Inverse folding.
């Protein structure tokens, strides 16, 4: 007989790991160690074992070193592994993580803000939508949809209404003094920081 | 002129008779009151005696003295709804004299899934086990440990030995090899399916576990 309480606590910790994993998925190279401890705080967390789901609400924040993921609500979903030895629903690796309401992702060199973000583990893609703003140094890029491939650190910003004269478009401001050495590029999430000019 | 000769002896007899008769009447009058009064007095004394004896009997009636049934190092083996064995033991168990279904436990130890894989062990300072509902209420330094090295500490917990679930409320701190989690309050509902931690939820995930979950970016 296993107790639901221990399983739920383990599940909560595991889903906490998932939140930290989402933070790392976007984490750029920096001083923060990738295997350092991850601290997660929230006002409340609800864990539903049968649905392999946990919901962190109330200024939920995952912090690893200098990397921070913050949102009002963070939901994590794990894959089902069938039933365990006791016939209870077993949950496996992280499947999907959603963040809502003022999603912030902040590193020492970059920061991104959006209304909504989804991390899909299998695809290795983070999609941030809704008034997205990416800042690296003085460079600023705004748009409606930011897609980051965590494996290649490729980031794409898109507008909800493409085409000239269609309202919101992707806008960017690059400062030549910072960008001239490498050209105007999107802030690259997860890629090594460019070497400082000699 | 005639004279009646009166015999002085006859006059004396009449006077005596009259006095005797008068005295007899007084005695009768006296006895008319005295005898009923005596009867009433005797009845009163008898009634009082009976009442006094009744009170003495009530006072002398043997009282039912509470006798606590105590067991030292008791073991209670049972099965939950799924047939899994649990072992409930304690340093001492005392059956409630007023509620025979209730047993008070000192330093109880509950081992769930006692003969299977993945044992879970609960300890506490005190416990109350109800035999009719098979609910165990633990209080004071409640500690829960499972076979995977995870543990949780709280002040109160309720174990449903039929369903094999643990629920409770109050501050809780949990730990596993992967990290720790704590909150000011918790509740378990839906037969253990839903766990809610409230109030300053804090979790710390160890570095090794964090790396094992996918590691950092290249």
């Amino acid at each position: 007989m296993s107790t639901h309480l221990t399983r739920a606590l383990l599940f909560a910790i595991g889903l906490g790991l998932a939140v930290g994993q989402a933070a790392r998925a976007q984490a750029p190279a920096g001083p923060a160690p990738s295997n350092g401890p991850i601290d997660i705080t929230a006002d409340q967390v609800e864990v539903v074992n049968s649905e392999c789901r946990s919901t962190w609400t109330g200024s939920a924040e995952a912090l690893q070193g200098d990397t921070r993921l913050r949102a009002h609500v963070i939901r994590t979903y794990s894959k089902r592994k069938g039933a365990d030895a006791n016939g209870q629903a077993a949950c496996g690796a992280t499947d999907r993580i959603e963040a809502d309401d003022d999603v912030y992702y902040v590193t020492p060199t970059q920061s991104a803000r959006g209304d909504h973000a989804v991390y899909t583990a299998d695809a290795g893609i983070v999609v941030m939508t809704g008034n997205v703003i990416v800042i690296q140094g003085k460079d600023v890029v705004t748009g409606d949809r930011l897609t980051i491939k965590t494996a290649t650190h490729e980031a794409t910003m898109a507008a909800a209404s493409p085409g000239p004269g269609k309202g919101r478009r992707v806008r960017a401001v690059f400062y030549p003094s910072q960008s001239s050495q490498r050209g105007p590029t999107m802030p690259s999430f997860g890629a090594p920081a460019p070497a400082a000019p000699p | 002129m005639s004279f009646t000769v009166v015999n002085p002896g006859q006059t004396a007899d009449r006077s005596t008779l009259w006095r005797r008769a008068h005295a007899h009447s007084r005695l009768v009058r006296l006895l008319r009151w005295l005898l009923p009064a005596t009867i009433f007095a005797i009845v009163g004394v008898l009634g009082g005696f009976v009442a006094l004896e009744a009170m003495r009997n009530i006072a002398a009636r043997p009282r039912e003295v509470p006798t606590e049934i105590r067991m030292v190092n008791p073991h209670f083996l049972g099965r939950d709804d799924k047939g899994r064995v649990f072992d409930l033991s304690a340093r001492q168990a005392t059956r409630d004299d007023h509620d025979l279904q209730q047993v008070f436990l000192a330093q109880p130890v509950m081992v769930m899934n006692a003969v299977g894989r993945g044992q879970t062990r609960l300890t506490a300072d005190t416990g109350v086990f109800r035999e009719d509902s098979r609910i165990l209420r633990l209080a004071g330094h409640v500690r829960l440990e499972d076979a995977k090295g995870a543990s949780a500490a709280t002040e109160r917990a309720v174990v449903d030995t039929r369903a094999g679930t643990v629920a409770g409320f109050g501050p809780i701190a949990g730990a596993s090899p992967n990290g720790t989690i704590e909150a000011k309050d918790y509740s378990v509902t839906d037969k253990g399916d839903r766990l809610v931690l409230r109030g300053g939820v804090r979790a710390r995930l160890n570095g090794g576990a964090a790396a094992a979950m996918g590691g950092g970016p290249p």
Chain B touches chain A through 57 residues (CB under 8 Å). The longest helix of chain B spans residues 8-60. Chain B has two helices and 15 strands.
